[in-house]
Structure formats: C-alpha cells, structure tokens
Specification:
single chain, alpha/beta, three-stranded antiparallel β-sheet, 10 strands, binds S-adenosylmethionine, S-adenosyl-L-methionine-dependent methyltransferase, COMT-like, protease, hydrolase
Length: 472
C-alpha cells in the first residue's frame, strides 16, 4: 500500500534524525540546541560534516512541508501574509540592540522594560514584539515579558559592548568579526522598504515591463531616479554605503569560504597570474583568495568615486591592488587568467549583464576563465518536466526526491527570497534577477562565453554555486 505523504515526510525526518545522531555520536560533536546561544560552528555537527548538513537539510525541508500540509491552510497562508510584520518586529530588536543587551543578561534573560529603557521605547510594546519573534523561535521567553537569547537571536550579536553601540550607533557594524548582523540590518532597513509596492510596479504599463534599474519598485517608492549604485555616491548616503559593504560580506559569509576557494583550481595558475575581481566592492573575496594563494596577483575593480575601500590591506599589500573601473566600459586588463564576479551579474537585467560580460569577453585571452558566483535558481517543479539539456547542466546542484520539492522547498529558498519573494530585492530594488541555469547558459552564450561547469560546493546554502565559463 502506498504510504501517505504525511508518513513519507515523517519517515524522512526519522531516518535523517537517526543519521544526525549517529554522526554526532561518532564525531563527539553536539546536536543543535535551540536554547543555546553559543554559535561556534565547530560546536554543531550539522554545520561541520557534509553528511550531517545533507541530513539536516532533509529534516528542515520535510518539517516545513509537514507544516504546510498540516496547519489550517488559511493560518499557513496568513503566516506569509504577515511576513512583513515579522520582519518589522525583528528590525525593532536589531535597532534596539536587544541581542547584545541580552548577551550581557545571560541565560536568565532580562525584562522587556529593561531592554527598552536603553532605546527610550515602550517596554510593553517591545515585550509583544519579542513574543512574536519568540513564537517563531527567535529569542526565548523565559518568564512573562522576560527574554533571553537563543541559537537564532544570537546570530544578530555584533559582539560589541552595549555602551559602545549606544554611544556610536553610526559605526555599529564597523570592524565586527561577523558581518551577518550587518546583512540583517541592511536587509530589514533599506532593502525592505519598497517590497509591498511590487504589485503597483508590475501593473504599471511602462515600469512593469522595463529592464531599467530606475524603474524598480524601490526607486519608484522612494522617488529615486538614478541607479542604485550611483545613488550611493551621494554624500548623504555615506553611512548606508558603509553598511552595504559590510552587509555584502555578511551575505557572502553565509556560505563557506570554499565557495570562492573551490570555485576554480587557483593553485594550478602560474606565479603572478592575474585574477580580476570585477565589481569587487570592499575586496572581501579578493582578500580571502590572496591570503590562501600568495602566488596570485589580484586586482579589485570597482567604481572609484562610489566606493570606500574599508580594508587597508587592499591598498597596502602589493599582491592585491584596487583599480577604479566602470564595468560598462571596455575592460582594461587584457592578461587576466580569471575574471571573477561575485554578486554582480544578478544585480543587472539581461541587457546590462550582457554589456558587462561582453566587455570581459573582449578582454579575455584564449585561456581566460570567467567565474560567476550568484545563486543558481532551481525550479520547484518535478525534475522530469525540466528540458534534458537544462537538467544536465543542473547535475551539480542538489536535488531532493519526492515527496519533497526537488529544490528542498522552504528549507532552501534563500535564492528565491533574494530574487523576488520574501525580501524581493533583485526585482524590487534593482529591477534585476537571480537566474536559473538555462538562463545563465543563454546569457553567457549571447556574449561569446561557453558555460563549462557548475562547481558543486558542499554545505553552501541554497543553490549558491559558482560556475565557470570559457571563451566560446
Ligand atoms: C553587490 S556588490 C558585490 C561586491 C563584491 N563583488 C562582493 O561580492 O563582495 C556590487 C558591486 O558592484 C559595484 N558596481 C556597481 N556598478 C558598477 C560599475 N558600473 N562598475 C564597476 N562596479 C560597479 C558596486 O559598487 C558594488 O561594489
């Protein structure tokens, strides 16, 4: 007799939990504990071992699918309807430095009145906001109106002294060892402000069909009429610009360093080989690469007028140099072994992405490789409905067996969130997009590049896998 979906999902969870427990026993590394705010990666088996990461992903996918299957449908849909409210609650806690205050309070937590006092906000209201989050497992209500950090809320800890956060709020995220809190703060603030107006933009007969960045929902909502990165050049945006640079580092660090280090066989390049980090921002990818491979010469290119290099090593070290360059103009480096683009192609609609890739193709030698690191969006439909040539290209991407959605559903939807959904950034803010592999292949081919390989990076979140292309 065929098993019900409910039983299949429950079996998947039981089997994968058994795998996690076995690996935990064998390695002596603990299982996760939601109440424990100690985030040291090495302290959790499901973040350190490839088989455990795999099992954890199945558990999360099946668990979230079970919720979709078993919650009253209208309640489930309303959880999505209220998604913006949950994000707004989280923003209050981030801006009020609740996590850092609770870090000092320890496991017994602190009454919401005391947390609120430092930001001069209403303690009763903050308690309701924190309970909303605690009900979604972010913070723990240890006694009525008294909250403590847990495994999830601790991710927002800048690790700075609370007194410093309140005396120097503009530099809250500067110089932190973990840039994730900056990514959360940035996304909850500027990136989220326009999301609810997506429909109005899509319905607009002109903006809805436009590929121009300035026709994004974000531009229209905030009344900004220059491209996002140009808007950043303006002196009043200095604080946001600094935060953005750190936030990008935070997004990137959600994936293991191997996303960069295994994207290409860097060690195989000869001494002095040139790697160009195109649109390299504050140079966080370039620095990682340079530190691991001292034989490479890394050039970080970005708009000179709009970007502050925050890591002095980028300028001081002879190995990594910073070069002002607009990637919509011809590429000046003609001897690059690798053109490296992380979080670049996804920022632009096809006509613009084509200009960038075409300029790089124009400067490529026969031996140049193009490495693109963006999310590769998987379909949510059954595998057998995907055209075979596209499916073949997707082989390096992880696929779940039924009854799970092939893309692991809500447990693996970060790329989709970045693209259009929960925080519809690319579509809402930049009028650009994350792409699926077929789309990327076509885009590359239209600029004279041949997609060579999608590189499988174990343990990378979502479908954030690098791809390599060579001159066609
Ligand atoms: C999302 S950030 C990615 C930064 C970096 N690649 C990383 O992964 O950390 C996009 C970068 O593109 C740069 N950018 C935007 N327009 C540009 C242009 N026309 N020429 C060069 N860089 C540009 C921005 O200044 C920003 O640093």
């Amino acid at each position: 007799m065929a098993l019900s979906t409910l039983t299949q999902l429950s079996n998947l969870i039981s089997q994968s939990v058994a795998t996690l427990e076995r690996i935990s026993t064998e390695t002596g590394i603990a299982l996760p504990d939601l109440d424990n705010p100690n985030l040291a990666v090495e302290s959790e088996v499901l973040r350190t071992n490839a088989a455990a990461i795999e099992a954890a992903r199945v558990i999360a996918a099946a668990g979230l699918q079970l919720a979709a299957l078993t919650m009253p449908p209208k309640d489930y849909v309303f959880e999505v309807v209220f998604g913006a409210h949950l994000a707004a609650s989280l923003r209050v806690c981030v801006e009020a430095n609740a996590t850092e205050i609770l870090r000092d309070a320890g496991p017994n937590g602190l009454h919401a009145d005391k947390i609120a006092e430092k930001s001069h906000i209403d303690g009763g209201k903050l308690a309701r906001i924190m309970r909303h989050l605690a009900s979604h497992h972010i913070y723990r209500e240890v006694a009525p109106d008294t909250f403590a950090n847990n495994r999830l809320s601790a991710t927002l800890d800048t690790e700075k002294p609370v007194a410093e956060l309140f005396s120097d709020p503009d530099n809250k995220h500067t110089g932190t060892s973990d840039a994730f809190p900056a990514a959360a703060a940035w996304t909850l603030d500027l990136w989220s402000k326009a999301a609810c107006n997506l429909w109005e933009t899509l319905k607009d007969p002109e903006a809805g069909f436009s590929n121009e960045a300035i026709d994004s929902t974000w531009h229209r909502t905030l009344g900004i009429n220059v491209p996002f990165h140009r808007w950043f050049e303006q002196p009043p945006q200095r604080k946001l610009r600094t935060l953005f640079g750190i936030a990008i580092k935070g997004y990137a660090e959600m994936n293991p360093p191997s996303t960069i280090l295994d994207a290409f066989p860097w060690a195989s390049l000869p001494k002095g080989a040139v790697v160009v980090d195109v649109g390299g921002g504050i140079g966080s990818a370039a620095l990682l690469l340079a530190q691991k491979h001292p034989h490479l010469r890394v050039i970080v290119q970005d708009l000179p007028e709009s970007w502050e290099v925050q890591f002095p090593e980028v300028n001081q070290s002879g190995q990594v140099t910073f070069e002002g360059h607009d990637f919509f103009t011809p590429q000046p480096v003609h001897n690059a072994s690798v053109f490296f683009l992380r979080y670049i192609v996804h920022n632009w609609s096809d006509p613009y992405a084509r200009k960038i890739l075409t300029h790089l193709r124009g400067a490529a030698t026969r031996d140049t490789t193009l490495v693109v690191v963006d999310h590769i969006l998987p379909y949510a439909c059954p595998q057998e409905t995907i055209p075979p040539d596209v499916a073949a290209l997707s082989e390096a991407l992880d696929t779940a067996a039924p009854p799970l959605l092939p893309n692991f559903g809500a447990a693996n939807a970060l790329g989709h969130s970045l693209d259009t959904l929960t925080f519809p950034q690319m579509l809402v803010n930049l009028n650009a997009q994350e792409r699926n592999i077929g789309h990327l292949k076509q885009l590359l081919e239209s600029c004279g590049w041949k997609l060579q390989q999608v590189v499988r990076i174990e343990g990378s979140s979502g479908f954030y896998q690098p791809l390599r292309a060579v001159p066609a």
